[in-house]
Amino acid sequence: MEIHRIAPSKAGAVAALMSTVKPDWWDLEGASSQLQDVGLLARLVGWYMEQDGAPKGWVLCAEFEGYSTTTIENLGYDEDGAFVMEGQLEPLLRQAEQYARQRGLRNLKYVIGSTGMSCHGRPITDYGEELRTLRSNGRAHFDYFRSIGFVPAGFLPNCYGENYPAIMVFKPVLKRGARKKKMGGAGQPPGSPPFFDVAA
What we know:
single chain, alpha+beta, Aminopeptidase, 2 domains, 5 helices, 7 strands
């Protein structure tokens, strides 16, 4: 067999295969869209705080409906010229959590580098044990996210360099048994505050 990249000219043939071999997951149109429309995999949405008419802090998220997860992609706040990523952003983090909940998504995810953590700077051989014994060595950023309900759930090995993993933390946002709500116009939850939609 030969391996080829899925080019636009071949997407239709691959979509036909997908819809034929697993029709309960894809019809032809859905498979074709998924292969060619990156917006179906992740949708960017973000919010910012304003002071005296100028942005002061922001959070950018990616919504992965297929995984029932909103991922915090990046965030920051200008504290008198210093870049910070903790408590000053709490209103925006609450907004992201509210958005995920209103969308019917179950998780809010964030990724934190291992600097200042017990897993930093050495090979990880047993990820389950490393997660069980994970601790902060005074890493304020990690400690802050733990304090607002995020829980470590895994690692991305060597994410930022050799022996420099990322720690995936999650916060459940949807109560068990809650049902997904209908969306308002332009994909915005009914009654939610204005936000900028990067996908728009």
